[in-house]
Write a structure and sequence with these properties.
Blueprint lengths: L1 H16 L2 H22 L5 E6 L6 H12 L4 E6 L2 H9 L5 E5 L3 H10 L7 E5 L4 H30 L7 H10 L29 H25 L11 H27 L5 H26 L2 H18 L10 H4 L3 H8 L4 H29 L1
Parallel strand pairs: 1-2, 1-3
Antiparallel strand pairs: 3-4
Length: 379
């Protein structure tokens, strides 16, 4: 029996690879992954920031700029020598924002600290407000905070405590003893499924979500192939009452190839976690997709209706699933989509169990609907 099943799997797979559309669907993923890898290596960012240092000899300002540039973040930094040039670059859309430092940043921070109130130390020039620019200002504030914190500390010790005889070296040593090394926060998932922190370019972040949508589309395409073969009489020797297992088997062959492509794409794109979690999640996702797509096939009843539903389902999955954004609400609708469970199962084991329950429920619905339609055909 095993040999017979493997032979049928080989023949069905061989038949699929003779279809141009099947090969085209599989080739979409390598092209997508290759394009994202090339883009991630290029200089990119969500905002272009032009840095202007009127006084290049200002040591503190140079240190802040060096820290900003050295951090591999999501901002793209440009440089100019004068404030007029920086403003021109923003006006002419050569940059999204300009950060113009004062000529003596350390002295300005001390004055701000002595006045016990926040004052401007860097001019920020923007054409319009946006979320990315708001985020960029948070990065600028984080880069300036260590110097401002020390200025407040020094002012407090010398003015409020009256310790004017303390040397700068002693003051700096006392301040550095209280500093916290490393990060105050440690990122971890609820199930502890991933020990290492994910490290990939922000362009790669939505890739797993896109692949999950692609796998569901593969399942729908497999159902279309089956319906076309059924209309052409390929399964005429199989009784109508036994064609549901045949449909599941034909679609499973397609999805088995798609699963291998998804796993390989995640590995090559740099969003892979650990083998056992990736393999289990992807196999369960394929089973859930198999049941879901066949249920849609039975409801649609014709290739035309199934093809029309693919566009609606694609748009729904891109919006409701955490592909680009994780929208709150619509929880009941999200639970109807197999890709939602898969994307959350990578770091939360309860969604693995959720996929098992989902697959069982969808399969039962497929059997019930198929039996009901078969009885109608007999009548």
């Amino acid at each position: 029996m095993i040999r017979r099943m493997l032979t049928r799997y080989y023949l069905l797979n061989k038949r699929l690879f003779k279809k141009f559309s099947f090969v085209l669907i599989l080739c979409i993923v390598p092209l997508l992954v290759g394009g994202i890898r090339l883009l991630s290596k290029e200089e990119s960012g969500i905002a272009r920031v032009v840095l202007c240092l009127p006084n290049p000899e200002d040591e503190l300002a140079s240190q802040v700029v060096e820290q900003l540039v050295s951090d591999e973040g999501i901002l793209r930094y440009l440089f100019c020598e004068s404030e007029e040039e920086a403003r021109r670059m923003v006006v002419e859309n050569e940059a999204d924002t300009a950060w113009i430092f004062t000529e003596d940043l350390e002295e300005r921070l001390r004055k701000v600290a002595s006045k016990k109130r926040i004052g401007p130390v860097v001019k920020v020039v923007e054409r319009k407000e946006s979320v990315s620019l708001f985020f960029s200002r948070e990065i600028l504030g984080g880069a300036l905070y260590p110097a401002f914190s020390y200025a407040v500390y020094e002012e407090y010790v010398r003015s409020d405590l009256g310790l004017t005889d303390v040397t700068e070296e002693e003051l700096r040593k006392a301040y550095e003893r209280t500093l916290v090394e490393g990060s105050l926060f440690e990122m971890a998932y609820l199930d502890g499924g991933q020990d290492a922190e994910e490290d990939f370019n922000y362009l790669q972040a939505p890739l797993r979500g896109i692949l999950s949508v692609w796998l569901v589309l593969c399942g729908l395409a497999a159902c279309l192939y089956y319906m076309q073969d059924e209309e052409q009489g390929v399964f005429s020797k199989i009784p109508v009452t036994r064609r549901l297992p045949a449909a599941f088997g034909v679609c499973a062959v397609f999805l088995s190839d798609a699963v291998l492509v998804v796993l390989l794409a995640c590995k090559l794109a740099g969003v892979f976690t650990v083998w056992h979690r990736e393999l289990i999640s992807c196999v369960l996702f394929a089973c859930a997709t198999l049941a879901f797509c066949n249920l849609i096939r039975l409801i649609g009843n014709t290739p035309e209706r199934l093809g029309s539903s693919m566009l609606i389902l694609t748009a729904g999955m891109l919006v409701l699933n955490p592909v680009f954004l994780d929208l709150r609400g619509f929880r009941a609708v999200k639970y109807l989509l197999p890709s939602y469970y898969y994307l959350l199962s990578i770091h939360n084991v309860k969604y693995l169990y959720g996929m098992v329950i989902y697959t069982t429920v969808m399969s039962v619905l497929c059997v019930v609907l198929f039996m009901w339609k078969s009885r109608r055909v007999k009548r």
